[in-house]
Specification:
The chain has about 550 residues and is an alpha/beta fold. The chain has 13 helices and 13 strands. Among the domains are: about 120-155, no CATH class; about 235-420, no CATH class. The strands form four sheets. Strands 7-4-13-12-11 form a five-stranded parallel sheet, covered by helices on one side. The chain has a three-stranded antiparallel sheet with strand order 1-2-3, with no helix packed on it. The longest helix is centred in the middle third of the chain and has 26 residues, at about 340-365. The mean pLDDT is about 90.
Length: about 550
């Protein structure tokens, strides 16, 4: 019940609201928060349930302190392959022989050539424009495009978090060893830098490729991307995969002061802020300054303060000790403290941050694109106006069944910029994981949802790129910092692709040029039992 007494702690991005970590129970809870006084009942409801689910209620008692996870019982949660031990599903792996047979089938299928009409960099060979040796953007016949280094029109069909062995981690092992049916052998499936974690994803790669699994698994990723039509390594991906220089990629800046800032707003009023930004960017871009495979850089991800400017000001003013941003805010509000003036201060601070980053990037790497901030919510027009003169591309994350056309129209009309959607996905519950931020009926409907979202997105004249989140399913027992455990991957913990997702990606990749050119109608079939990422209604007062 403690989850419902107050807002989550302020965080750098909207996904990072983990003020009550647990060893199980996986994902943290959401909903209305307030004083818990006079509670006379506790209810459980399911919003858009799949099938005919049941809820098992065991003993219920109240504790002042967390009693732990006794409710799980003695049945292991994770089987010897990293799958859920609590559910059954049609193609669940039961033996290593079965798994090796399926791996062999995939390898045979990857040897079959697919034709996406791609250039070396993944652009379309239909027509060639001016080649500059780097990625750029261009508006042609009222439609925006990336243009690849050779001058071919390019639409970025990307996947986030591309990394071998990603997924299947069990962290905080000292508190969770009883969750696991059979641990990987000592020395495999664990990161030496994280001794309290095992990785079934990595262990399964060793089972597949042997001692040379590290290099062979990276080659497999590139082969899959080529066979499926994926032409971009999107955000959060493995630097080792990127360094292979076989697919275009996008990167994000780090160390720009957002991690230290309250709710992710950097303190631009420190005397050395400009010099620090320039130093970080100079060092970062030096690695890929002349690399034609790099599309560009994101500045940051999902600032959590948008729409909470007054609360952000309260948090800044409440910081213990002296901070330049605190002094600047006090001086600004001395004349008048109103919601409007608070917003003005935060917006001005944000603008200084963006301008400083862009100036340093233009100075040290003018050939790569400023891809903006991956906004978690679409900001109001005043923020869009700030972005207008700074970014080359406006980026945002959008977890819905389809990206809303009216929102995309507003972005393009205000900013005049092309757009990239940095994150979207769908999932379901059959693998014993959470259903992701957009739920559908089953694995087959995930493929339907992918085609619908992706083609509807690229049907907009301003949309030039997407990044599906993510390459692999998340950890069954929850990722380390907030417990997310979504079935949202293209690949499961046993290193098997979801066949309906792969089929959907291939079909979509072959149609995107014509869809964006509006020579083909975008796919419009909706998936069964879909539930988008919207506010859950007040179920108690219907």
């Amino acid at each position: 019940m403690r989850f419902y007494t107050e807002l989550p702690n302020a965080a750098n991005d909207i996904a990072g609201t983990m003020n009550q970590p647990r060893y199980s129970g996986w994902f943290n809870l959401g909903g209305e928060r307030g004083p818990l006084i006079g509670v006379d009942s506790i209810g459980i409801r399911m919003h858009v349930p799949i099938g005919d689910p049941t809820i098992e209620l065991r003993s219920i008692s109240l504790h002042v302190n967390d009693p732990g996870d006794e409710y799980l019982g003695e049945t292991p949660i994770v089987d010897e392959f990293g799958q859920s031990n609590l559910v059954t599903f049609e193609d669940k792996i039961k033996s290593l022989e079965q798994l090796k047979s399926e791996w062999k089938t995939e390898e045979d299928n990857l040897s079959k050539t697919e034709d996406f009409n791609y250039s070396k960099y993944g652009g379309y060979l239909n027509a060639q424009l001016e080649a500059t040796g780097f990625f750029r953007t261009q508006k042609l016949d009222d439609k925006w495009w990336f243009v690849d280094p050779e001058g071919y029109q390019f639409l970025s069909l990307g996947i986030d978090c591309i990394s071998p062995g990603n997924g299947g981690n069990v962290n905080r092992l000292d508190k969770r060893s009883n969750f696991i049916k059979q641990l990987p052998p000592q020395g495999y499936g664990s990161n030496p830098d994280r001794p309290n974690t095992v990785s079934f994803g990595t262990w399964n790669l060793f089972r597949r490729f042997g001692e040379d699994y590290a290099s062979k698994s990276k080659e497999m990723i590139i082969d899959r991307m080529s066979n499926w039509g994926i032409n971009t390594i999107a955000n959060w991906s493995s630097r080792e995969i990127i360094a292979m220089n076989q697919k275009p990629f996008m990167l994000q800046f780090y160390g720009l002061g957002t991690d230290e800032g309250v709710m992710g707003l950097a303190d631009v009023y420190t005397s050395d802020f400009k010099n620090k930004i320039e130093k970080v960017i100079k060092e970062t871009v030096s690695l890929n300054k002349d690399n034609p495979w790099l599309i560009g850089y994101f500045t940051s991800n999902e600032p959590s303060w948008l729409g909470q400017e007054s609360r952000l000001c309260d948090l800044i003013l409440g910081v213990k000790g002296d901070r330049p941003i605190k002094a600047a805010l006090n001086n600004f509000l001395a004349e008048s403290d109103t919601p409007e003036r608070r917003r003005a201060f935060i917006f001005d601070t944000f603008k200084i941050f963006l301008q400083t980053v862009d100036a340093a990037m233009s100075k040290h790497d003018p050939d790569h694109l400023n891809l903006g901030i991956r906004f978690g919510h679409i900001p109001e027009n005043e923020i869009l106006e700030i972005c207008k003169g700074i970014f080359d591309v406006f980026s945002f994350n959008c977890y819905e069944l389809v990206p809303p056309k009216e929102t995309m129209d507003r972005i393009m009309n205000v900013t005049g910029l092309p757009m990239v959607i940095g994150e979207y996905h769908t999932g379901t519950i059959d693998r014993g994981m959470a259903q992701a931020l957009v739920q559908v009926e089953n694995q087959q409907e995930r493929g339907v949802a992918y085609r619908l979202y992706t083609e509807q997105a690229f049907n907009h004249p301003g949309l030039i790129g997407v990044g599906y989140f993510q390459w692999s399913d998340q950890d069954l027992t929850g990722r380390g910092y907030d417990g997310e455990n979504y079935n949202c991957g293209l690949v499961d913990v046993t290193d098997r692709p979801y066949k309906y997702m792969v089929e959907a990606i291939k079909e979509t990749a072959k149609r995107l040029y014509a869809v964006h050119s509006q020579k083909l109608d975008a796919y419009d079939q909706e998936p069964l039992n879909s539930c988008g990422y919207e506010l859950i209604p007040d179920l108690w007062n219907e």
